[in-house]
Write a structure and sequence with these properties.
Layout: E1 4-6, E2 9-12, H1 19-22, H2 30-35, E3 45-49, E4 56-62, E5 66-67, E6 72-73, H3 102-107, H4 117-120, H5 125-128, E7 138-139, E8 152-153
Parallel strand pairs: 4-7
Antiparallel strand pairs: 1-2, 3-4, 4-8, 5-6
Length: about 160
């Protein structure tokens, strides 16, 4: 909407709605989709699945490529990386993602939280809100992966599920 001015006073100022409020996940550009990632790092944690119940349990062990201090993947743009790829067409399959995950929020038609970088304008607010795994996990290179059960956690830190 265009600003309407009368006698140098603005009667109405309406900013365009942000893309995450107006587009479906499938309509988003790759850049828009990628910007939804809040860099919490939860998707980079090793998980264990109960074969009988299907329940997924988190561990406090992160993938070797997660920069634990920044909560970002160090090989994200590597076309040969062989890990989880969250896409608009498969997001609903990942029910284990935290309820705070922006991809999950958008798939469930919910709003982004105040600490999300698209809302706050700052990538540090997710850490300030204590939502990320930053400095709360260990790298898989420091343990024997056969011992993952010893690192199970009920919920990954303070992430609301």
């Amino acid at each position: 909407m265009v600003n309407i001015k009368m006698q140098n006073r603005s009667l109405m100022t309406t900013e365009p709605e942000p893309f995450w409020k107006t587009k479906t996940l499938q309509e988003m550009t790759r850049f828009e989709w990628e910007s939804l990632c809040d860099r919490c790092g939860v998707c980079c944690l090793h998980r264990l699945k109960n074969g009988n119940t299907g329940k997924v349990y988190y561990t406090s062990v992160a993938c070797r490529f997660l920069d634990i201090d920044q909560s970002i993947c160090t090989i994200y743009d590597d076309p040969l990386r062989n890990c989880l790829k969250i896409k608009p067409q498969n997001i609903r399959r990942f029910r284990w993602l935290p309820k705070s995950c922006a991809y999950r929020l958008m798939a469930e038609n919910r709003q982004l939280e105040w600490w999300h970088p698209l809302i706050s304008g700052n990538f540090n607010t997710i850490h300030e809100a204590n939502i990320s795994v930053r400095q709360k996990v260990i790298s898989e290179i420091n343990i024997q992966l056969d011992d993952l059960e010893e690192y199970m956690v009920k919920k990954p830190f303070t992430v609301p599920f």
